[in-house]
Amino acid sequence: MGFSGSTFYSTADQKYLVKSVPRYSEHSYFRDDLLTPYVEYMATHPRSLLVRICDFLGASGVSLGRILRLAPSHHIVMENIMYGRELAKKKGEIDWEDWDLKPTSYFFPERDIAEGALTSEATKNQLADEFHDKIILTREQADSFFSSLEADTKLLAEHNAVDYSLFLVRIQTGRENQEEATVGDSDMVPTAPPSVPPAPPSWRTGVASADGKYVFRAAILDFFWAKHKIQPRLMTLLISAWNLITNSGHMSITTTPEEYRERFMRMYRGIVEVRESDGNQGS
């Protein structure tokens, strides 16, 4: 069960996830506004970090569960960026780490009202993660990473999407320095290509860090919240009224797409450290 009320299932081979999209504002946005631009964009941007959505399923018949909103009417089938984790655990390897990253400087009622005293720790723990480390990349890796993310977020901003996240996976290689593991040679990076381009290494299959210690995967998830839909507009009005009293600022779901994109870009640029070929470092 996800924090938004979605349910997740995995296929038997762990390659794909099936996620319910229970909110009308979200599945109608994806169907009516984003689906065609998304498909056209993905066809021309093979290195996009937007998660690969392979199918969009909707029930057309009438059922009691959907009338009472006890059963979702729409699901998406998407690639599982954690594919391979269960096999690694069975082999006794160090478990993979993951973070669901969003800009944390926004107003979060669960965290910021009464210093979080009115909300359970379980609820607060499901808010956006923070990555207190650096992804060490070569200049070429970093430029490619930033270029893809900037193009991806531009598409989302043009279609009014906010509140999406960067899902980051870190896999230890068991090596301690670059001499032991040159970039791209880790056995954590699959040699077989995925079902669609590009061939490995990519952020979908794994990119070896410049220091040889980790393999990273990354994908942009949850780009279904659009500012022009009814529920987001109502939430924006509610938070605007609240700010007349408290001046707490906007939430990540009520800010503008352009402003969210700017903070999102600052966030991912802030977690990358560039290691130049001559040993010099930058950020």
TrEMBL record:
One of its GO terms (biological process) is phosphatidylinositol phosphate biosynthetic process. GO terms for molecular function: 1-phosphatidylinositol-4-phosphate 5-kinase activity; ATP binding. Residues 179-203 are annotated as: Disordered. Residues 191-201 have a biased composition (Pro residues). Residues 1-272 form the PIPK domain. One of its GO terms (cellular component) is plasma membrane. Pfam families: PIP5K. Keywords: ATP-binding, Kinase, Nucleotide-binding, Transferase. This is Phosphatidylinositol-4-phosphate 5-kinase. It comes from Cercophora newfieldiana.
